[in-house]
Structures are given as structure tokens and as C-alpha cells.
Design goal:
3 helices, mainly alpha, 88% helix, 105 residues
Length: 105
């Protein structure tokens, strides 16, 4: 055996001795097992959160479309009310108003 072989062998035994004497093998294995379980749980919870975010995005888009539709219908109704009010004023002989009563408040 050469000097280099004996150093390599002593280095390998030194690592196993550190694990065996300073850190018991059961502690190392249980720590690694706990870490693996933690990573697995985080992975599956991350997937669940991604699914929930996708569902929320779809729901927000739906609500946004509904809000846009309601806003457009509200603008159309406001236009019709102003037109009806101006027609009523014209029939009564009152001077035309440039703004409706709601806009003045």
C-alpha cells in the first residue's frame, strides 16, 4: 500500500466516523426522511394552490365581463333617460337642459 492509498482510505473512514460518532446514522436518516416528506408536502400543496389560482382567475374574468356588461347597460339606460327627459321638456315647452338632474347632484 502506498502513502496515497492510505490517505484516501483514512479520508473515507474519517467521513464514516464523523457520521457514526458525532452524528448517529439514525439521526441523519430521519432528518433526510423528514426533509423528503416536507418537500413532497410542499410540492402537492403548491399544485393545489396553482389549481385554486386558475379557478380564481376564471371567476375574476367572469365577474369582469359581467361588470362590463352592466356598465354598458347602465350607460344605455342613462342615455335613454336623458333622451326621455329632453322629449318631456320639449313637449312641455321648457328650455332644453344640457345636463340631466342626476349629473347636477
Amino acid at each position: 500500500m502506498t502513502d496515497r492509498d492510505s490517505r484516501a482510505e483514512s479520508g473515507a473512514t474519517r467521513i464514516t466516523r464523523v457520521i457514526d460518532f458525532r452524528l448517529p446514522l439514525a439521526w441523519v436518516l430521519s432528518s433526510l426522511g423528514g426533509l423528503a416528506m416536507l418537500i413532497a408536502v410542499m410540492y402537492f400543496q403548491g399544485n393545489r394552490v396553482q389549481e385554486e389560482v386558475r379557478e380564481l382567475k376564471i371567476e375574476v374574468k367572469t365577474w369582469n365581463n359581467q361588470a362590463s356588461t352592466i356598465t354598458a347597460e347602465q350607460a344605455l339606460l342613462r342615455f335613454r333617460m336623458e333622451t326621455a327627459e329632453s322629449d318631456i321638456r320639449a313637449l312641455k315647452g321648457l328650455p332644453p337642459s344640457t345636463t340631466s338632474d342626476r349629473n347636477r347632484r
